[in-house]
């Protein structure tokens, strides 16, 4: 299956997902040589890049047409993109959202393909990675921690009351993504996203 036609320039893509800079301490302790580390870095970044391209595609279509992307693309193309996203994630993928809700692979992909979470743009002044560090834990696992600035909105539903409303997602977030090497491919296994309070970060005081 061919990858989706790129809709982000290389500059936009780098601003959106970052460079996946390898943490030096993890590189020293993982026992891998520089060529293996580079292959891991490129492999996990390729997963993020393809996911970002697909997300941008549906974001652009929903924003331009004001309708569900399936109406503009057709069911066959949408299902092809669904299959590609499934291949980028493990079957048991989980995403802990900024609202504390744990979503599975099916739900996470459906949100992307609906285009209902609307980012103002990708890259600077839209969805932008400002800090990132890739921690490599041997040949089959890597963890990316990032700081992301986001400008966008979308509909949210209160799972207790059922109330649906438009939410502003603009803010700065800490993210963690866990990648594993499975069936000869790098895949995203888990993600977590936490908003940094507008008043600044806080930490629990530790007394010696």
UniProtKB/TrEMBL annotation:
It comes from the Bacteria. This is DUF4440 domain-containing protein.
């Amino acid at each position: 299956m061919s990858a989706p036609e790129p809709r982000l320039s290389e500059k936009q893509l780098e601003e959106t997902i970052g460079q996946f800079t390898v943490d030096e301490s993890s590189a020293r302790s993982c026992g891998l040589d520089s060529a293996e580390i580079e292959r891991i870095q490129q492999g996990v970044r390729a997963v993020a890049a393809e996911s970002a391209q697909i997300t941008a595609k549906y974001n652009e279509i929903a924003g331009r047409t004001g309708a569900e992307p399936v109406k503009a693309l057709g069911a066959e193309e949408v299902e092809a993109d669904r299959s590609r996203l499934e291949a980028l994630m493990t079957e048991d993928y989980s995403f802990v959202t900024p609202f504390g809700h744990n979503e599975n692979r099916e739900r996470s992909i459906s949100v992307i393909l609906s285009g209902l979470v609307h980012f103002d743009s990708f890259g600077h002044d839209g969805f932008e990675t400002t800090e990132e560090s890739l921690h490599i834990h041997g040949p089959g696992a890597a963890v990316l921690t990032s700081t992301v600035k986001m400008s966008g909105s979308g509909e949210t539903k209160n799972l207790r009351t059922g109330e649906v409303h438009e939410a502003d997602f603009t803010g700065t977030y800490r993210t963690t993504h866990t990648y594993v090497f499975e069936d000869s491919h790098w895949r995203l296994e888990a993600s977590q996203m936490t908003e940094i309070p507008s008043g600044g970060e806080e930490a629990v005081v530790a007394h010696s």
